[in-house]
Amino acid sequence: xxxxxxxxxxxxxxxxxxxxxIALIVTIMTSFVDKTDGPERGxxxxxxxxxxxxxxxxxxxxLFFYQPVMLxxxxxxxxxxxxxxxxxxxxxxxxxxxxxxxxxxxxxx
Length: 109
What we know:
Elements: H1 2-6, H2 11-31, H3 44-73, H4 77-104
Helix pairs in contact: 2-3, 2-4, 3-4
């Protein structure tokens, strides 16, 4: 059920899912920042960061590429390219808004 809920040809939905995933990861990571004053954790920190990077790359690949590739393989090349470009475009707009908020905000939220 969750799988079918995430497979969409709506670029707004795809881009906002990607932004939401990033916000969730940042929220989780920043909640642990104050707790890093403890003893050195050796290999656990780099292992965790690299694992998170791989998980994030796989999640973004799914959100940005899966449905366009499926459309392309069905012979709908134009629709596939349109979906991909629109998803990237909407996500770029989200990033621009976040950069503007960061740039014009004195606190940096």
